[in-house]
Design brief:
The complex is a heterodimer of chains A (111) and B (113). Chain A is mainly beta and 111 residues long. Chain A contains no helices and eleven strands. In chain A, a hairpin with a 6-residue loop joins β4 and β5. Chain B starts with a strand and ends with a strand. Chain B has 113 residues and is mainly beta. In chain B, strands 2, 4, 5, 6, 9, 10 and 11 form a seven-stranded mixed beta sheet that branches. In chain B, strands 1-3-8-7 form a four-stranded antiparallel beta sheet, with no helix packed on it. The chains are: A mainly beta (111), B mainly beta (113). Chains A and B meet through β5 and β10 of A and β4, β5, β9 and β10 of B.
Amino acid sequence: QQQVKQSPQSLIVQKGGISIINCAYENTAFDYFPWYQQFPGKGPALLIAIRPDVSEKKEGRFTISFNKSAKQFSLHIMDSQPGDSATYFCAASRGYQKVTFGTGTKLQVIP
Amino acid sequence: EPEVTQTPSHQVTQMGQEVILRCVPISNHLYFYWYRQILGQKVEFLVSFYNNEISEKSEIFDDQFSVERPDGSNFTLKIRSTKLEDSAMYFCASSDLLVDEQYFGPGTRLTVT
């Protein structure tokens, strides 16, 4: 019940296209849903986050869509750039408790 | 911008040896965490620490592991007798009392031979 499921495992997108990564959770006690971006050899860096009382949050080219009833949320990267090539992890947590990570999506943006 | 720092960046050790991984959390943060990531896999929670005691630990965090905040700035993870399967990236994270975001350090790559 603590799992966060993430898909796809890998994604190749043309420069300028839209990258979409999907996640689903089971534990309704989660109240915070961050997305992390990780470059090779680096730690996860917080990209954007949402709480379940909001259905969408946008920061620049990055948008989270949240469907509380379906227990699903997704990350949309608009106008994808080669510099966006990284591994993206969705995650969930409750308060100050541990962050539960998804399995990761390796995004490659090709010119 | 304040950040979490970790040392060393890479540690190579022989099976059975003790290792200590060090972290300096963001200065005003009160919650501290250790996670690990085996190559190519997801990030897994090990332990959380608040008010000088463990608040939660995972099944991975067995008697071979311990954490300590020896002074006002450092937070350490000790593995008493390393195994081959302990080879992974170890990430320290910290968070503030007022927000839920956890900020991760750059990690220590532990290689057990």
